[in-house]
Amino acid sequence: MSNKLGIFIGRFQPFHDGHLYAVKVAASQVDQLLILVGSANACRSIKNPWTYQERVDNIRKILRQNDVTNVSFRPINDHPYNDHRWITEIIASIGYVDTKDVILFSPWKEGNDYLKWFPMLRLRNIPLGAHGISATSVREDMFRRNDPSIPKTVQADWDYYQKEAEKFSSYPYPETLNFNCADAVVVCLGHILLIERKHAPGMGSWALPGGFKNRVETFQQCAIRELREETNLRVPEKVLLGSITASKMFDSPNRSFGINRNTMAFCFELKPDSDGSLPRANGSDDANQAKWFLLSDVMGMSLYDDHLAIISELTGIHPDFAAR
Hints:
Layout: E1 5-10, H1 17-27, E2 32-37, H2 52-65, E3 71-75, H3 83-94, E4 102-106, E5 122-125, H4 135-144, H5 152-167, E6 179-188, E7 191-197, E8 206-207, E9 210-212, H6 219-231, H7 237-242, E10 244-250, E11 261-269, E12 287-294, H8 295-298, H9 307-315
Parallel strand pairs: 1-2, 1-4, 2-3, 4-5, 6-11
Antiparallel strand pairs: 6-7, 6-9, 7-8, 7-12, 10-11
């Protein structure tokens, strides 16, 4: 072994015995192991119950107990609609080390297709054998047991989606069951209008105004209705219609949880009020509050579901730094 750097990528939601085994094997084969902790910018959810710092603190504690000391950590953000940005962030995390001296450690298993995206690195498999544990199954067991280490808001999300699944369990064509939604990306003077969600799922998190599309309305009508209901935005509907600059459908089957939720997002670029101030808004309906944020600040926030990625796609502003 000659001054080799290893990297190990994972979300560690949670860090379990399989992760511990793999990290110990990897750390024993290199001078320094860099653990890249994914979904660093993700809001708490069923898939990501714990924050980046909570996970790092827990992993450090477990590794110290197992005498694994040659490790360091870096946050890696989610970029669900831009794989190239995610790959670039992984490579940038390595720094100026020659990539031929970097070993990417990972158990080769179904779902690890991203391993093919790094031909510039040396890939080394870690057979898990009896240590092959799924974090998803660990989380599901914790939810079912109402484990006290699960944040209460995330447990509430789990309960919400369990009730949703039960409600639609008798739907005769489950493969065609989708919910249609619309979201509003409202920007003005370098600011964006967000709401704080009042109920599960995502209670207490900041999000785009939006919601389910009614049968008798278009996606555009839905976006404007939800925007006005949740923010009481003091802008006439005619002005809102004339301020739409972009729209895009987000229909990945991996977005959100429970029954698939397809959303059509619309970007509204508003002018300030006559006195130069931002249009007035306040939370209503399903929102505790509505607030204008600087877009530059929002790029470092943990927003509900994939809303940060939606904002990035429609405004062209990218979260180029990882949440720490």
